[in-house]
Amino acid sequence: MQQKINDTKTVLQPLAVNQITLPNRIVFPAIQTNYANSDGSVSDKLINFYAQIAKGGCGLIFTGSASVSPDSVHSERTMQIHSDKFIPGLEKLFTKITQFGCVPGIQLMHAGRQALRSVTGHDLLAPSAIPCPVHSKLDPTYKVREMTLADIKRVQNNFVAAAVRAAHAGVKVIEIHAAHGYLLNEFLSPYTNHRSDQYGRSTLNRVRIITEILTEIRNKLQQKVAISVRISANEFIEGGLVPENFQDIIPCLENAGMDLLNVSVGTVETVNKVIPNSSLGETPFVDIATKIKNFTKVPVCTVGSIASLKTAAAIISAKKADLVAIGRSQVADPALVNKSLTDDVAKITKCLKCNKCLYWNTGDKDMHCFVNHSVSTK
Ligand SMILES: Cc1cc2nc3c(=O)[nH]c(=O)nc-3n(C[C@H](O)[C@H](O)[C@H](O)COP(=O)(O)O)c2cc1C
User: Fold this and answer.
1) How far, in whole angstroms, is CA 148 from its chain's centroid?
2) Pick from 93, 19, 18, 13: which is nearest to 61 by CA?
3) What is the pLDDT of residues 189-236, one digit of tens each?
4) Ligand 1, residues 28, 32, 176, 350: which to mutate, most atoms within 8 A of Cβ?
5) What range does the domain containing 96 cover?
6) Are 149 and 208 in contact (CB under 8 A)?
7) Residue 7 forms part of a structural domain
8) What is the largest CA-CA distance in the chain?
9) Measured between alpha carbons, how far is 81 from 40 in angstroms, rounded to an integer?
10) How far apart, in whole angstroms, are the C-alpha atoms of residue 13 and residue 48?
């Protein structure tokens, strides 16, 4: 039988990230639910979903991902943030999360070549005109084009404008999505970036699109928000990014204003690593985060199949990471943190890692959970 955990000192210790104080070390990572309204605005269903997790004791929630531009919208109910009309809904959402003592964050993303033209209605953009082997098979009209310098400037402005909107709505942590094979990850990776200009050719050039975004967000928002960057530290693709590449990348991100590094892995081509099933065990990628921690001064968050507060506490006590993101296990039981601190620990509903939540594979219109039916019905 599970017992309530005793070693809570480290996992419950507040952490200062720039000027934002997180109440504890547990994070809910960005999980696209498709619970937004059909115009991409925040719905009551979305607010209820995050409210349960905030109420359940989580320290920091990354809402989203939210699309920074209309040519990056995944599907009809993706959260969006490319217009001021989204601010009132976001304000309601961040206020609700804050009410429970949890810190509201948002992940900002552009999907790049990992999208469907039939959904976006626009040409897909990428550093180089290399089709995504997965998405290109799903859409006969799939077409990706190399971004011009004007495209790059426009998308950078989209990220900065989105960050300013989120701050206006009361967010405390802004996460730039540079992981999982989406646009900014495509720029970082020698596998997808074959450019010969100032945004390609070398590691320092490949990171430039991100550092320019970070610098501009910092200029505009000063210390009002903390800035997180999510990376895929290992793409698990031949010719793709490996942890050692980040020794050169991370100092650039730090100099440009990064306050927190959220270490994930994989791309849509290696999605079994991004969202691992149970065959990989409970902590398959903590060692990668620990390796990355050696390259940075900022706090590091790890993720991947972590299922209990006890495991999170062990990771933090051993200084393998500073924060632990628990995704699907908090979807399965949004009160995981609080229940773990009481005798209710035995009542935690456990995530089966069945990946029923991957609605794009199951044919569900939005995220469902096999063990927590309330997430998709409220
Ligand atoms: C339904 C679903 C949607 C996801 N959407 C995003 C996303 O929008 N952005 C992101 O960075 N990661 C996304 N992820 C990955 C999660 O943030 C997390 O890294 C992954 O689920 C592994 O953590 P876990 O084992 O604790 O769930 C998604 C995962 C799931 C299950």
Assistant:
1) 26
2) 93
3) 999 999 999 999 999 999 999 999 999 999 999 999 999 999 999 999
4) 32
5) 15-377
6) no
7) no
8) 59
9) 8
10) 27
Q: Which two tokens stand for residue 217?
A: 């967000």
* CATH code assigned at 215: 3.20.20.70
- Sequence-distant (6+) residues with CB within 8 A of 312 are 11, 25, 26, 306, 324, 326
Residue 182: active-site member: yes
Q: How far is the CA of 304 from the centre of ligand 1 (A)?
A: 9
Residue 23 belongs to some domain of the structure: yes
Is residue 51 within 8 A of residue 7, CB to CB? The reply is no
Tokens 């991409």 found at: 40
Residue 308 forms part of a structural domain: yes
The catalytic position among 35, 50, 182, 191 is: 182
In a domain, 86, yes or no: yes
pTM given for the model? 0.97
Comparing CA positions, the residue from 36, 52, 21 lying closest to residue 330 is: 52
Place of tokens 């921690």: 293
Q: pLDDT tens digits, residue range 5-30?
A: 666 778 999 999 999 999 999 999 99
